[in-house]
Amino acid sequence: MDGFSGAVSAAFGLLAALDPELTGIVGLSLAVSLGATVTACALGMPLGALLAVARFPGRGLLAAMISALMGLPPVVAGLAVYLMLSASGPLGPLGLLYTPTAMVIAQTLLVLPIVAALTRETVAALHDEYDELLRSMNAGRMFALGTLLVDARFALTTAALAGFGRALAEVGAVMIVGGNIAHATRVMTTAIALETSKGELALALALGAVLVALSALIHGAVALLRNRAEGPAHA
């Protein structure tokens, strides 16, 4: 009990002092996860919206693949990126393996299906609701798509936050492609795993507290946005 109490006390000490190692790990975690989320949104939201309103051969198959990839195991995503970036892989000459860029790519692979699927679901529902109105206005496809995306902005922000939360809590893929290198590719989840295995609980507890706080903030933001989006409908 004394050892645990001491670890908790030391963890609060690290947080209060803004320990450089702690803040460096948190900063890299945020940078990698934000980079992956922005990339996934830039690719996934247009893809999801296109799947919601367009009709083309293979549309159903592509939508099914995206839905299936939402459950992609992180270690499989990490392995796929590792094979692409390894010395013998097609992108090996770029030298990206064991860098934050490789971690962003791996997390993007995990977040993109989530963002695309949620965007498709949201835009499809709005399209069904406004389809007759848009047809009566002779709205072109791009205008209709832009209108639907603007109207779905709160729901799409929620999708982005969900993707960010997924990226922030991921450990398997970034461990494989990042290597958990101190001061280079060590993020919160991999650092917690390492410090716990070493029996060094102070840093692990401090990072765990930060991760829980960030998760609570994300879920709070999602709830706030959901309430704001539903507010007019209940007015």
TrEMBL record:
<keyword id="KW-0813">Transport</keyword>
<dbReference type="Pfam" id="PF00528">
    <property type="entry name" value="BPD_transp_1"/>
</dbReference>
<dbReference type="InterPro" id="IPR035906">
    <property type="entry name" value="MetI-like_sf"/>
</dbReference>
<feature type="domain" description="ABC transmembrane type-1">
    <location>
        <begin position="26"/>
        <end position="222"/>
    </location>
</feature>
<dbReference type="InterPro" id="IPR000515">
    <property type="entry name" value="MetI-like"/>
</dbReference>
<dbReference type="InterPro" id="IPR049783">
    <property type="entry name" value="ABC_perm_TupB-like"/>
</dbReference>
<keyword id="KW-0812">Transmembrane</keyword>
<dbReference type="GO" id="GO:0055085">
    <property type="term" value="P:transmembrane transport"/>
</dbReference>
<feature type="transmembrane region" description="Helical">
    <location>
        <begin position="139"/>
        <end position="165"/>
    </location>
</feature>
<feature type="transmembrane region" description="Helical">
    <location>
        <begin position="201"/>
        <end position="225"/>
    </location>
</feature>
<keyword id="KW-1133">Transmembrane helix</keyword>
<dbReference type="GO" id="GO:0005886">
    <property type="term" value="C:plasma membrane"/>
</dbReference>
<protein>
    <submittedName>
        <fullName>Tungstate transport system permease protein</fullName>
    </submittedName>
</protein>
<feature type="transmembrane region" description="Helical">
    <location>
        <begin position="97"/>
        <end position="118"/>
    </location>
</feature>
<feature type="transmembrane region" description="Helical">
    <location>
        <begin position="30"/>
        <end position="54"/>
    </location>
</feature>
<comment type="similarity">
    <text>Belongs to the binding-protein-dependent transport system permease family.</text>
</comment>
<feature type="transmembrane region" description="Helical">
    <location>
        <begin position="61"/>
        <end position="85"/>
    </location>
</feature>
<feature type="transmembrane region" description="Helical">
    <location>
        <begin position="171"/>
        <end position="194"/>
    </location>
</feature>
<keyword id="KW-0472">Membrane</keyword>
